[in-house]
UniProtKB/TrEMBL annotation:
GO biological process: L-proline biosynthetic process
Protein's organism: Micromonospora humi
Function summary: Catalyzes the reduction of 1-pyrroline-5-carboxylate (PCA) to L-proline.
Keyword ATP-binding: no
SUPFAM superfamilies in the record: 6-phosphogluconate dehydrogenase C-terminal domain-like, NAD(P)-binding Rossmann-fold domains
Pathways involved: Amino-acid biosynthesis; L-proline biosynthesis; L-proline from L-glutamate 5-semialdehyde: step 1/1
The enzyme's E.C. designation: 1.5.1.2
Name of the protein this chain belongs to: Pyrroline-5-carboxylate reductase
Keyword Amino-acid biosynthesis: yes
Phylogenetic lineage: Bacteria, Bacillati, Actinomycetota, Actinomycetes, Micromonosporales
Assigned protein family: Belongs to the pyrroline-5-carboxylate reductase family.
Catalytic activities: L-proline + NADP(+) = (S)-1-pyrroline-5-carboxylate + NADPH + 2 H(+); L-proline + NAD(+) = (S)-1-pyrroline-5-carboxylate + NADH + 2 H(+)
GO cellular component, one term: cytoplasm
Amino acid sequence: MGGHTVAVIGAGKIGELMLSGLLRSGWPVERLLATARRPARAQELADRYGVRVVDNPTAVAEADVLAVSVKPQDAAALLDEIGPKVPAGKLVISLCAGLPTAFFNRRLPEGTPVVRVMTNTPALVDQAMSAISPGAHATGTHLALAEEMFSPLGATVRVPESQQDAVTALSGSGPAYFYLLVEAMIDAGILLGLPRQVAHELIVQTAIGSAVMLRDSGEHPVKLREAVTSPAGTTISAIRELENHGVRAAMLAALEAARDRARELAAQV
Ligand SMILES: NC(=O)c1ccc[n+]([C@@H]2O[C@H](COP(=O)([O-])OP(=O)(O)OC[C@H]3O[C@@H](n4cnc5c(N)ncnc54)[C@H](OP(=O)(O)O)[C@@H]3O)[C@@H](O)[C@H]2O)c1
């Protein structure tokens, strides 16, 4: 691994996750470049990771892979600057939520391979879920290279680009839904008289245990839930309340709203 030089263009929160994940996985620091808009941010990245922080044209000239991780609303200005300078055939990986690969292809030299990746913040602990889609000119080799870069950060899956807005709603924003749920359950523990710290500990470990069981058992979640739901027991009493309050319907509506918002944001750029 590490035969290619990767430049993280616009190394903010997500770009930094990529840099730190690649370094943790043993990617040689001399094969990484980063760019930033503010000099203070550039200095911070250089100090923290020992990575060479350069300007955008240098990154474009020197790197084999350009990982674009600016905010979607900054992408057009960035591509106006670097687009004409990107040598033909260089792989561009977009981490920008909502932006189609066609958006990049319109602003890059004809035939530039673009791969779109939607990752999520658990990349910070090497537990990301990254969904990878090829643009019009990306081949299996380009997808494999993107997978090589993102698999040290967690799991990867290939999806058609048409499913990326749904992926954004589900796994891109997904960590926030789990945190909200945990927050609500801690509040419930406090309502039941538990000290906050105890409620926190109980529910965080329960979340981790449940997640590991889901992943490692391969069982359907219904089966795992049924194993905790005895006849006339406590769990079914709670589940009746969850159903009464429309938690399942709320989840469906919430994800639809997130998907629609992803589409709206893409339409604005
Ligand atoms: N945060 C998430 O959970 C998440 C999850 C999945 C995908 N994403 C996607 O990841 C992308 C980045 O999000 P983020 O949360 O990491 O945003 P962010 O922290 O604001 O990072 C963007 C970085 O790009 C820099 N930048 C902007 N224009 C630039 C230019 N022309 N040249 C060089 N650097 C430039 C910014 O510099 P300054 O700091 O100096 O302004 C900033 O450091 C977004 O497109 C988002 O959709 C985010």
